[in-house]
Design brief:
The chain has 223 residues and is α/β, with parallel strands linked by helices. The protein has one domain (2-222): 3-Layer(aba) Sandwich (Rossmann fold). It has 9 helices and 8 strands. The protein has helices at 12-22, 30-43, 51-60, 88-98, 101-122, 132-136, 150-163, 170-186, 208-222, and strands spanning 2-5, 26-29, 63-65, 74-76, 79-80, 125-129, 142-147, 199-202. The strands form 2 sheets. A 5-stranded parallel β-sheet has the order 2-6-1-7-8, sandwiched between helices. It is globular and about 45 Å long. The model has no long low-confidence stretch (mean pLDDT 95). The chain binds cytidine-5'-monophosphate.
């Protein structure tokens, strides 16, 4: 099992999926879980800053996540919401929602269950998020913490948005990435931070393929 953490725009999602494919492992995008709950919060007209209301909604949200790295699906009450959870509204509201302790408790329990099932079924999984190495699976044999310069992360995010047909400028992407990082790394419960025993990899100057080579080597040593 590989635990991959770090802020947004480090290439985490792309490399996690590719690495899982290479290793014939499963893939779990924990950020997608926080995003789908956030979408449910927004659709219900609940204020993302209203902790008790958000917690109550999270308990009753019916969502499903696929773990196949070649086609990771996200459904909310049976509806395919894979594209919608990447939109600006969810980007803006996801950090307050994911700072609610009950939401984290619920999703972490679900993440551990999925990880256990996939490990039993196919023997390997790559899990990406913010607290995988520190909270979700602190005993993962390989923990990697990806970083990159904020300007480079914003440029990547903006390019991804444009490719997906969403309007984006680098300035907006930088502001959004900055805000999310600040909120994610300063929250009280499970803030974004590297595990003490994580391998740090700065992807600022690296292509996706180079990151993949580095991770594959690490995984073959101790994944
Ligand atoms: O990885 P992604 O950018 O999709 O994550 C969206 C948000 O979900 C993060 O900004 C963070 O607020 C939250 N998150 C989290 N813990 C995780 C994964 C994501 O709090 N393990």
């Amino acid at each position: 099992m590989v635990a991959l953490d770090g802020p947004s725009g480090t290439g985490k999602t792309t490399v996690a999926r590719k690495l899982a494919g290479r290793l014939s492992a499963g893939y779990l995008d924990t950020g997608a879980m926080y995003r789908v709950v956030t979408l449910a919060v927004l659709r219900a007209g609940v204020d993302p800053a209203d902790g008790p209301a958000v917690a109550e909604l999270a308990r009753t949200t019916d969502f499903a996540l696929g773990t196949d790295p070649s086609a990771p699906s996200v459904h909310l009450a049976g509806e395919d919401v894979a594209a919608e959870i990447r939109g600006a509204e969810v980007n803006h509201a996801v950090s307050p929602v994911s700072a609610v302790p009950e939401v984290r408790e619920l999703l972490v329990a679900r993440q551990r269950r999925i990880i256990g099932e996939v490990l039993d079924e196919i023997g390997g999984i790559v899990v990406e998020g913010r607290d995988i190495g520190t909270v979700v699976t602190p005993d993962a044999p390989l923990k990697v913490y990806l970083t990159a310069d904020p300007a480079v992360r914003a440029a990547r995010r903006s390019a991804q948005d444009t490719a997906a047909g969403r309007q984006s400028s680098q300035a907006e992407a930088l502001a959004s990435v900055d805000r999310r990082d600040r909120l994610d790394s300063t929250r009280a419960v499970a803030p974004l931070k590297a595990a003490d025993d994580a391998v740090h990899l700065d992807t600022t100057e690296l292509s996706i393929d180079q990151v993949l080579v580095a991770l594959s080597e690490l995984a073959s040593q101790r994944g």
